[in-house]
Amino acid sequence: MAGTAVVTGASSGIGAATARRLAKDGFEVVAIARRADRLHRLAEETGTRPYPLDVTDEGAVRRFAAELGACDVLVNNAGGALGADPVAEADAADWERMYAVNVLGTLRVTQALLPLLRAGRGGTVVTVTSTAAFAAYEGGGGYCAAKYGERALVETLRLELCGEPVRVVEVAPGMVRTEEFALNRMRGDADRAAAVYEGVDRPLSADDVAECVALAVGLPQHVNVDRLVVRPLAQAAQYRLHRGPLFRD
Ligand code: 8X3
User: Fold this and answer.
1) Which long-range contacts (CB under 8 A, 24 or more apart) does 185-188 make?
2) Predicted pLDDT at 27
3) Cβ(246)–Cβ(231) under 8 Å?
4) pLDDT (0 to 100) of residue 189
5) Average pLDDT over every residue of 67-95
6) Which residues are known to be catalytic?
7) Does domain 4-241 have CATH number 3.40.50.720?
8) For residue 199, which of 23, 86, 118, 205 sits 20 to 30 Å off, Cα-Cα?
């Protein structure tokens, strides 16, 4: 079943890859992000519809929903990490921003699009959380708090929509190497960002995660993937990361 899919955080990384992938699968994709130039480039390349929007802007989200007309799939992907400071020294403003984008952004877009998702033959809400949504680690406090919160939103929504033909799916990736995630977390320090992946033989790519989103979306409408946890083979658990060669080729 194709239809209209809305992907947030679509200007780069997992969001852009998901927009690209769902367009390939036949969806009319509306790609949302703050950076219009990147959305336009994606549109030229893939035929997705660009809609520059900040998911933390309540009024803009409402206006977008009013203009949309139809929505069969919503992929809540906008989010990310800011800073890797210990709780003792963390900047509360970073935590507020992470909560605003990861949790409240997902809340606002989901609330605004739910009438459309309910109106069709069957809707799907996929939210890209993280393995940080259920495992804390040093320096991850603010990001984990936001992702735990986002996960709570997803689980609550699934319960509240029980009895309606709207699937509520969580995709929780572990280590994914994208151009911006670690760089944003390390406040633009490219060396610290690169060190995150040092020696890891094939962290997940944005395309790998997009594949998981497409898999969950492409299953029959009565099949709800509650949570799909995906990590690179080199990462057996949040703390069990193999740095070194893994594959022979
Ligand atoms: C990113 C995964 O391990 O950096 O969402 O928190 S992790």
Assistant:
1) 185/80, 185/81, 185/82, 185/83, 185/84, 185/143, 186/84, 187/82, 187/83
2) 98
3) no
4) 95
5) 97
6) 143
7) yes
8) 86
Sequence spans of domains, the chain: 4-241
143 CA closest ligand 1 atom index: 6
Ligand 1 pocket member 175 (CB < 6 A): yes
Across the chain, mean pLDDT equals 97
For residue 132 and ligand 1, the question of a CB distance below 6 A is answered with: yes
Name 216's Cβ contacts closer than 8 Å, sequence gap at least 6: 124, 126, 169, 171, 225, 228
Amino acid in the structure at residue 64: F
Whole-model pTM: value is 0.97
- 83-104 pLDDT tens trace: 999 999 999 999 999 999 999 9
Chain length of the chain? 249
Average pLDDT over residues 39-45: 98
